[in-house]
Design brief:
The complex is a heterodimer of chains A (115) and B (114). Chain A is mostly beta strands. Chain A is 0% helix and 50% strand. In chain A, the strands form two sheets. In chain A, strands 2, 4, 5, 6, 9, 10 and 11 form a seven-stranded mixed β-sheet that branches. Chain A has a four-stranded antiparallel β-sheet with strand order 1-3-8-7, with no helix packed on it. The radius of gyration of chain A is 13 Å and the shape is globular. By secondary structure, chain B is mainly β. Helices cover 0% and strands 56% of the residues of chain B. The chains are: A mainly beta (115), B mainly beta (114). The interface between A and B is medium-sized, with 24 and 27 residues.
């Protein structure tokens, strides 16, 4: 499976600021996703990052709050905008390698705390 | 939206015991995945199931895709301390764009007592 690197691995931010998280994969992947995992909770899909076009957002998530880019088949960014303490979570990038329907694999996540 | 309920929510077991956990859905899925997440890490894929009734093993782990396609089971035999973690099931769904996505279960937290 692909090696997935997320940066930063953790950060502490002030409310009202924005942070961009990067996801870099060592090989071309079919699909890339961004998830949020709130403390002690399961994973919730934020959006599917589409290469060369706007991301597909899930219910409850909007582009103004979570802008996503995917300029090529190996890289994506998620920005958490105008942060509040409720945005304190782990943000995870996942990828699918190969044919559609294959399982997704995760990076180690970005642990974000907002003061 | 669809929900995946996992049970038990958490469990403490003695080293050497077998563990069983399950995942149930209100809807049919075509693919089931099982992941393990340890502190400070992302989920790691354990087993993937693609066909109703399928039974697949990975070492001491065995998972089954339920015949109704609305549930899946994960068993761990002869548990060891390093089995500690959170186990998530995930079912494949279709996203609003027509491609697929995965819905994650609520998780089972496993603690193994040496």
């Amino acid at each position: 499976s692909a090696v997935i690197s997320q940066k930063p691995s953790r950060d502490i931010c002030q409310r009202g600021t924005s942070l961009t998280i990067q996801c870099q994969v060592d090989s071309q992947v079919t699909m890339m996703f961004w998830y949020r995992q709130q403390p002690g909770q399961s994973l919730t899909l934020i959006a599917t990052a589409n290469q060369g076009s706007e991301a597909t957002y899930e219910s409850g998530f909007v582009i103004d709050k979570f802008p996503i880019s995917r300029p090529n088949l190996t890289f994506s960014t998620l920005t958490v905008s105008n942060m509040s303490p409720e945005d304190s979570s782990i943000y995870l990038c996942s990828v699918v390698v190969g044919a559609a329907g294959q399982p997704q694999h995760f990076g180690d996540g970005t642990r974000l705390s907002i003061l | 939206g669809q929900q995946l309920n996992q049970s038990p929510q958490s469990m403490f077991i003695q080293e050497g015991e077998d563990v069983s956990m399950n995942c149930t859905s209100s809807s049919i899925f075509n693919t089931w995945l099982w992941y393990k997440q340890e502190p400070g890490e992302g989920p790691v894929l354990l087993i993937a199931l693609y066909k109703a009734g399928e039974l697949t093993s990975n070492g001491r782990l065995t998972a089954q895709f339920g015949i109704t396609r609305k549930d899946s089971f994960l068993n761990i035999s002869a548990s060891i301390p390093s089995d500690v973690g959170i186990y998530f099931c995930a079912g494949q769904d279709t996203s609003s764009s027509g491609t697929y996505k995965y819905i994650f279960g609520t998780g089972t937290r496993l603690k193994v007592l040496a």
